[in-house]
Recover the amino acids of this structure.
């Protein structure tokens, strides 16, 4: 683990490299994997948010640090192995054969946040990061106080028959060659939000390319296994907030400019809503009219709606934890009996 240094986002953001255990991506790599932890400056608050990005992505939403700081939360973000800041040499972008591999860097990031004085940790996952965060919370409930999901990837965005076929087909390909490219993402979504193509955001087109990373069989196989776990139900013990756009564009056709400005053109929001009853004991769903796939990169109005929903819900739940802890402390004080 390296020391904190200024991040590519500039001050006050800082980054440090996290050493992780090598995994098997299915092909030889010249450099061992690492992860990268980013924080919004030195800690100021008692609670922290840890952000986990999606596929073909990295942490780029600098405005989140200010939004969470205003709500009394310190922001951390992790670039997972082979993504963004963490990719080294000839590593295959985003390649992993088991989503549980990421438990190591997420656990390490939470350990850093706790060591820096944070008593509560909110795990916030977007898209594939939402799926990864959901599974992490299920397997490590003692490490996560609250779970927030931004458009989590809970199913393949295609017709029912093709969704059913995708599992066995990808499993067969994976058994022969986990690194085989089985798909590529379309470029419309990323192009629509990048300043080079008329969008409002500036970010690295190497780390978040318009054509997306190559989608490999081993990665899809890992995702489908994780999605099946979600479909079976998880019974998460911590409170969960799921935020999605209020609509998706139709699968199988190219999104219109209107779709790109105000809907989820990557995933089907109904697939996310379907999983709400089985996620846990305390799940809140918030839909954001006009939101896009990454709600934090939506136009100003829906972006504000999303951030207000997250910070308000988070603040209320953290306050409830404090009130409960105070009540238990009072009832246990023998001087008050």
């Amino acid at each position: 683990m390296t020391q904190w240094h200024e991040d590519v986002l500039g001050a006050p953001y800082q980054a440090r490299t996290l050493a992780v255990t090598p995994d098997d991506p299915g092909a030889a790599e010249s450099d061992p994997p690492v992860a990268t932890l980013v924080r919004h400056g030195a800690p100021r608050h008692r609670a922290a948010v840890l952000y986990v990005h999606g596929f073909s992505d990295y942490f780029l939403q600098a405005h989140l640090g200010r939004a969470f700081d205003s709500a009394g939360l310190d922001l951390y973000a992790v670039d997972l192995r082979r993504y963004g800041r963490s990719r080294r040499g000839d590593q295959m972008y985003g390649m992993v054969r088991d989503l549980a591999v990421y438990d190591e860097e997420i656990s390490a990031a939470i350990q850093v946040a706790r060591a820096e004085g944070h008593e509560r940790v909110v795990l916030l996952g977007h898209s594939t990061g939402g799926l990864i965060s959901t599974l992490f919370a299920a397997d490590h409930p003692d490490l996560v106080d609250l779970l927030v999901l931004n458009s989590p990837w809970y199913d393949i965005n295609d017709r029912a028959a093709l969704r059913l076929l995708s599992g066995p087909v990808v499993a067969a390909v994976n058994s022969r060659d986990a690194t085989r490219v089985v798909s590529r993402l379309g470029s419309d979504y990323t192009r629509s939000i990048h300043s080079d193509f008329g969008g409002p955001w500036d970010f690295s087109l190497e780390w978040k390319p318009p054509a997306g990373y190559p989608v490999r069989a081993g990665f899809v196989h890992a995702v489908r296994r994780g999605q099946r776990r979600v479909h079976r139900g998880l019974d998460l013990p911590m409170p969960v907030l799921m935020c999605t756009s209020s609509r998706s564009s139709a699968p199988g056709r190219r999104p219109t400019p209107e779709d790109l400005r105000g809907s989820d053109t990557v995933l089907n929001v109904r697939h996310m809503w379907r999983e709400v009853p089985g996620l846990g004991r305390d799940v809140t769903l918030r839909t954001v009219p006009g939101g896009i796939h990454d709600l934090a990169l939506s136009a100003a109005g829906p972006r504000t709606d999303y951030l207000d929903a997250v910070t308000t819900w988070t603040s209320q739940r953290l306050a409830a934890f404090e009130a409960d802890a105070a009540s238990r402390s009072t009832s246990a004080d023998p001087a008050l009996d």
Observations:
- The first helix runs from residue 63 to 70.
- Residues 159-165 have pLDDT under 50 and may be disordered.
- The first strand starts at residue 5 and ends at 6.
- Residues 56 and 213 are 5 Å apart (CA to CA).
